[in-house]
Amino acid sequence: MALRTLEHCLACGGRRLRPLAMEYLHEDTRYPLVECGACGMRFLAVQPTPETLTSWYDAAYFESEFRCGRTEAPAADEAAFRAESLGLLDAFAALGASGRLLDVGCATGSLVKHARERGWRAQGVEPSADAAAHARALGLEVFQGDLLAARLPAAAFDLVYMGDVLEHVPDCRAVAAEVARLLKPGGWFYLRGPMTTHSIARGLALRGYGLLGRRIVQREVPYHLWEFTPRSLGALMRSVGLTVMQLRQSKIPPGRTRGRKSALQRGAMAVLDTLNLPLTRWCNVLGDRVVLVARKPAARDKNLT
């Protein structure tokens, strides 16, 4: 199957795309990065084929390349997953949400398990056969495959959670639309994940390479097909009929990420990220992570419009 070239932004529909001074190179295929002039989302101008995507997410990814090999938390760290799941459930409770919960990309089912213990009627969707099998062995209801293939009933869930998933899917708009379809009126979409790295370090690097007529070549798998911005996430949610209620940025602390960089590059990035961190914390800008909470309008809200 031939590679697909995108000529418009899936978040906002914009067609004014600006080439960036960066590309990924993997197995002799180049994946140039472009930026939407309307909403700022960055994405691969050349999209991998379904077969290529499947090959990237083998068992080794979930064992050694978890979170793209850029954070230190291993997939098998049950204690970390438990703490994360309980924190999420507290956040859901703070929204006043309860009832039926769907975890999209549920991995081995930690959130589904702990949600059930808290009284939720919870189930999951997970593309990894190994992870889904592990979850099922615990007696959890987990569909093995992607969200679109699950064909779940409409208006069935009070809350849909998606953590570090949307940036990986071939069609982010179709998946967002499916989330909206699955939510009950008044239901919540709770999204966590990476954004376009609008950090000081990356901004200077892209600008500098662009002025010199050079390109940053990342010789690694481009797991993130979409690099969202607050504006692009807002546009995407509006396009599928969801209303953004909260959007909070955060910054991965200096030294917590790993990558194929020289000691000099790592040192320079650490200094710039140290300057970046308080700006993100205090002003909610220049982050590289996001928590977005969106809501499907209640039936009475639709009647008023």
Automatic annotation (TrEMBL):
<dbReference type="InterPro" id="IPR029063">
    <property type="entry name" value="SAM-dependent_MTases_sf"/>
</dbReference>
<dbReference type="GO" id="GO:0008168">
    <property type="term" value="F:methyltransferase activity"/>
</dbReference>
<keyword id="KW-0808">Transferase</keyword>
<dbReference type="GO" id="GO:0032259">
    <property type="term" value="P:methylation"/>
</dbReference>
<keyword id="KW-0489">Methyltransferase</keyword>
<dbReference type="Pfam" id="PF13489">
    <property type="entry name" value="Methyltransf_23"/>
</dbReference>
<protein>
    <submittedName>
        <fullName>Class I SAM-dependent methyltransferase</fullName>
    </submittedName>
</protein>
